[in-house]
Amino acid sequence: MVRRIQIAPGDKLLISRTDRLGDLILALPLVQTLKARYPSTRMEVLTSDYAAPILKYHPAVDGVMTVNHALLASDREYRAELTRALASAGYKAVAVLYPEKNICRIFWRAGIPIRIGTAGRFHSIYFSRRLFHRRNPSTRHESEYNLDFLKFFEDGELSLMPEIHIAGEEKSRAAQFLQSQEIGTDFVVIHPGSGGSAHKWPLDNFLRLYDYMVKSGIEAVITGSKEEGAEIIALARRMNITIKEITGKTDLRMLAAVLARARATVANSTGPLHLAAAVGTRVVGLYPRNKIMSPVRWGPLGKGHLVLQSPEKGQKMDSITVEQVAESMRILARGPIKDGSILK
């Protein structure tokens, strides 16, 4: 039987999810649930410096600490400074959702009394409470695996949907930005990149999709990083396709506000896909037929989304056709659909 942690008013709790943007978004139901069950605690999150801005204005998050992965891996003094900061913060407990070995060791050295993490790894020795579950079978959603940590806490309210909060002034700035880019009020977003976190639908297919959408009367805009944008623009020129793109022109907060204004978004299984779903925009998600990367584990949360999965087993995704994706986008852009539909 699991021994429940006794949380008193004023205690400080830390949720650690230090990998990618999508992973952090899918950890928010746990953060929101714990804050609802223990409203008088101080709830803080340790995350990557890249993903951290998405927590701004979140009512369940009382504080944020960030990690630079390059320095964490290479700089001993950086690790020492992080250890000192965690030790002085006075956390009663930390739930380690992504058990990177350096982070696990730092929590132990920082002397946080209750350190909860998964069993089965060598560095699980740094945890004082161990969660016995296996994510590799990928039979449940990642957000559900994160909610397994609740077994160490008291029962109560349960939050299942991640929340991203966009301020009014951010919405206004996004509207002004889109107007400056000559993008109307009724548009869809095409996000070809993946940040290396998932297998990708071919870039030329995304550009053919863009051309297909525009010719069918639906305004589209391409998003991505500055580096992705250079590749997208060069390929579009070679394919003789004129595109509207805002690659490299939005930070994470602006991207969230832009996605919130879109009629629909299409993307690989990546952070912006989950970001769009979390701000209330319906998405078309593109996935390989690979168990570890399947939509069962990594699909968009919420109602009204569509998922297309490669019919061929393995990592290749080019068997998903442009026509299939275009039809899915037209469905989302022009009318309601049944909840939780999955197209295969």
Q: Can you tell me the CATH topology of the largest domain? A: Rossmann fold
Total number of beta strands = 11
User: How many distinct domains?
Assistant: 2
Rg of Cα set: 21 Å
What is the CATH class name of the largest domain?
Alpha Beta
Basic shape: globular
Q: H/E element string?
A: EHEEHHEHEEHHEHEHHEHEHEH
- Rounded mean pLDDT is 94
Report the uncertain regions: 337-344
CATH-defined architecture of the largest domain: 3-Layer(aba) Sandwich
How far is it from the N-terminal to the C-terminal residue, by CA? 41 Å
Give the CATH H-level superfamily of the largest domain: Glycogen Phosphorylase B
Residue fraction in strands: 15-25%
Tally of contiguous helical segments: 12
Major β-sheet strand ordering: 3-2-1-4-5-6
The portion of residues assigned to helices is: 25-40%
Structural class, judged by helices and strands? alpha/beta
Largest sheet: 6 strands, parallel
What's the quick description here?
The chain has 344 residues and is α/β, with parallel strands linked by helices.
Question: What features would you describe in this structure?
Answer:
The strands form two sheets. A six-stranded parallel β-sheet has the order 3-2-1-4-5-6, with helices on both faces. It is an alpha/beta fold and 344 residues long. α1 (21-37) packs across α10, α6 (168-180) packs across α9 (252-261) and α7 (203-215) packs across α12. It has helices spanning 21-37, 69-74, 76-89, 101-109, 142-147, 168-180, 203-215, 226-238, 252-261, 271-278, 295-298, 322-334, and strands at 12-16, 42-48, 63-67, 93-96, 114-118, 129-131, 187-191, 219-222, 264-268, 282-289, 306-313. The chain is globular. The chain folds into two domains: 12-152, 3-Layer(aba) Sandwich (Rossmann fold); 169-334, Rossmann fold (3-Layer(aba) Sandwich), CATH 3.40.50.
